[in-house]
What we know:
The chain is an alpha/beta fold and 1225 residues long. It contains 41 helices and 21 strands.
Amino acid sequence: xxxxxxxxxxxxxxxxxxxxxxxxxxxxxxxxxxxxxxxxxxxxxxxxxxxxxxxxxxxxxxxxxxxxxxxxxxxxxxxxxxxxxxxxxxxxxxxxxxxxxxxxxxxxxxxxxxxxxxxxxxxxxxxxxxxxxxxxxxxxxxxxxxxxxxxxxxxxxxxxxxxxxxxxxxxxxxxxxxxxxxxxxxxxxxxxxxxxxxxxxxxxxxxxxxxxxxxxxxxxxxxxxxxxxxxxxxxxxxxxxxxxxxxxxxxxxxxxxxxxxxxxxxxxxxxxxxxxxxxxxxxxxxxxxxxxxxxxxxxxxxxxxxxxxxxxxxxxxxxxxxxxxxxxxxxxxxxxxxxxxxxxxxxxxxxxxxxxxxxxxxxxxxxxxxxxxxxxxxxxxxxxxxxxxxxxxxxxxxxxxxxxxxxxxxxxxxxxxxxxxxxxxxxxxxxxxxxxxxxxxxxxxxxxxxxxxxxxxxxxxxxxxxxxxxxxxxxxxxxxxxxxxxxxxxxxxxxxxxxxxxxxxxxxxxxxxxxxxxxxxxxxxxxxxxxxxxxxxxxxxxxxxxxxxxxxxxxxxxxxxxxxxxxxxxxxxxxxxxxxxxxxxxxxxxxxxxxxxxxxxxxxxxxxxxxxxxxxxxxxxxxxxxxxxxxxxxxxxxxxxxxxxxxxxxxxxxxxxxxxxxxxxxxxxxxxxxxxxxxxxxxxxxxxxxxxxxxxxxxxxxxxxxxxxxxxxxxxxxxxxxxxxxxxxxxxxxxxxxxxxxxxxxxxxxxxxxxxxxxxxxxxxxxxxxxxxxxxxxxxxxxxxxxxxxxxxxxxxxxxxxxxxxxxxxxxxxxxxxxxxxxxxxxxxxxxxxxxxxxxxxxxxxxxxxxxxxxxxxxxxxxxxxxxxxxxxxxxxxxxxxxxxxxxxxxxxxxxxxxxxxxxxxxxxxxxxxxxxxxxxxxxxxxxxxxxxxxxxxxxxxxxxxxxxxxxxxxxxxxxxxxxxxxxxxxxxxxxxxxxxxxxxxxxxxxxxxxxxxxxxxxxxxxxxxxxxxxxxxxxxxxxxxxxxxxxxxxxxxxxxxxxxxxxxxxxxxxxxxxxxxxxxxxxxxxxxxxxxxxxxxxxxxxxxxxxxxxxxxxxxxxxxxxxxxxxxxxxxxxxxxxxxxxxxxxxxxxxxxxxxxxxxxxxxxxxxxxxxxxxxxxxxxxxxxxxxxxxxxxxxxxxxxxxxxxxxxxxxxxxxxxxxxxxxxxxxxxxxxxxxxxxx
Length: 1225
């Protein structure tokens, strides 16, 4: 079996290319009209249609049972003594076995096809994400794209089930109706009329369900996008104390989703009611009209009809779900088609051809051989819409020769990063043409770090060249950091580099670029994230070093030494190139940001002093603020492996779900289901009594009386069906709302460490796939389970009443059945857990790829990442295939067991008819009832165990949600409540504070003591990983301290409710954060300021013009504000902090990504606007703290120096003076 499993996986990997090839043919033939559905048909249509033949045979063999039953009952009525009865009895069991084999084969081949299709669709979606530029992808939100992978792919695959069922179910219904005609002639038309009348009703309901589903999916996309946004920026949200605000917005979106889900569920309930009551109404009207036409009922005819009614139940009940499944599949395939139709980036060769054609008349052909990048009259935008022509680059013409260091400079928002992205092809080219020569390496402004080892991040799919690898580590000042890590370069890096400092992330991204040995290097402001010592080292050794010295390097920077050392300087302003030249001419150029910002003379630094300082400091440099020096390898596994429970799903999970649904509604559902089955059994028993009475005495009761009682049973059954259907819908909706809200509340109240240790994709999986199961699949399968259980209970009671010998069979039968189900359930449950655990890495990898797709495309590493993703899909397919084999194993064993029961009852009935047994088996009516009840026991037993197992599988989603409802919670409460004006003075005291990020790690802050006087401005400086940001983490209680105490205005912050504390402090985080809403909501989501105040602050932060250009305060920010530069986003975050009017303002590298001139103006703004406020500034640029009242110098979590910056500057032996000497950078 294992060999066959691996063989299947190989086949699956082979056929993945099939769908992609068919889709590309679709696009080539008709790009605007390309349909994923047609591509699926061309790829898998013929094997799928061939399965239809097996489906026909399977459906036809299902009707052999009722026909054999008819002959057997007639044989019993005649009381013949030959062997025909035994032949018929055994044939009844053998037909069941034959049907089970054909059914198993059909299911096996169909599921194999579905596995192929699912893997193909997932791979095609992933490949598309790798190939579509950021501008083109902006048509879709990130949440929408994640929904394509998590939900739409599965719904499209379900088309395989629904499509064959669309013709199979009417075929089964048609044959059943014909056989009914042979039994009751035209009387069956009465039942048929009821069925036909319900068709337009169900069609109307299906249309409403389709509309509600489409609206629900849009809201689901928005909810998943908001959830992803919340999880991605949870640290910043906690610092702002906005997590409750964001969760309330998320709950509003969820309530709209649930509104459409409720519409769908209640419409589903009507569907269930109409189709579930149809067989009962069918029998009532058919037998009623038959008797009113003057015919007499007999046992053979009645119970053959009942068996045929039973054959009708499954197709009639399934039909609305089939229609809904088809509707869902078509909606999802249309959504996927729209995404897959997005245009992909043009290959480099095409761009080159295009370039040569355009410039041939201008004699640029020869020049192009010496040019690394040529841009001719280029206009670009981030929007994918033709209507939105907000040009970020405007008529840019630029020729960059090969082998030069090119510095791109300009103020914040001038278009520097956009220039690099246009070269990469990430922007929409509105006008002009772009040509780049050779391979490209890219280090983005916000580094994208891959979950994996240090080595994985640097190699990025390339083979290991040990010498170049070592040289790269040294050039990027990573060799010391890596040597201090447990596991060295095989140390595991968490999602988004969570266990690295900001500087280390930047250097790792640079190392990745340099190792690639590319022709062109695009480096976006990589020096701003590191301190002055490290910046000088990596500039000299990496950017100017021997590894890349003859390559073209395009560096966006505000760094003075980098600008002065450049071979060519490009000055940008508001999307235009205003000047191109060398550094000697720059001082007299239009760019005024170069002069006057360098506070120190370059001759002040001697290269020997620099190298000595760098060497000494590197020896002290920890890997991160968490300082993982000399930590066991196990402690380096910052990302915890996803837990999966073992054994059966515990009873507490079912209790919790019932509790979320409401105990009262759970009891109502249970009682209505039991009473509904009792009324149905009563209806059948009354029919058997009617048959026997008709045979014995005509005068005891009139036909009208029998019909009246039958009507009463029918009305009771219909009413209870309606109660059950709507109770399930109500209970399922209530549980969906409660589970989501409880899960969300628990997750947002979790400490930051939980998010550092848990990949966002794993948490998002709970809010997408698992919650979708709890919303939709779980109530549905629970409903089926309950119906199957009470159905089996009813059959067991009736059979025990009719045939006493059945009780003898019941005990051994139950023993075998329990053994089978125990063995199967324990296997399938673990397989489902493995399925969930193997699914999470797919979504985590997909989310990670969405974030870093531009980097992957820049390095031309699409094939490498596609191969990694294919491996994850392969692992997922293995568990799915194992699930399939286990379920089919069970199905076969159950069919054999049930066939033996049917044969036993039939044979005992034949023996009883001979009168050779001491116990009578009752009247012909009861014997007929027993046989008609025994026939469907095959499907009902299998359906019960399948639904029971499926319920356990679906309950795993509930179990996984409950896991995250039990995560550690922040200490939110405190007894010290604050007035609105707190803190009034802004005095901050750290007294012997020690803080660790994890118990196994050394202290990030080590017994640190200092006092910041109220109203003073204090700078915190130190090497990368010295513990600067840890001071803010301790102050904002993001990480609990394990020693000492922190006082603000004399109050111990531990005694203050944590959200109140954060709400009274203002912060500008290291990574700028904008969310998808209006600019006004981004700046002041709590609506505490009026428009005049907001515009005033924006003007002081020098970002008013950009906001006006974007459309004012009501302009919508999309996709984390990518339409603004990183520098502009930081300015907006500063404006947001100043609007808060707090007495304490914390700035974490807030000027790192802005040009020197803007940074200088901002410092003056902070000095004037924040007069009287306590300002704590974490800085790499030493000159930004020179005008402050005090400076704290940290190293390895210890305060090593404190004092007035100017006084320390004059002391040449001070550490601060050493930093200052390096700041010619």
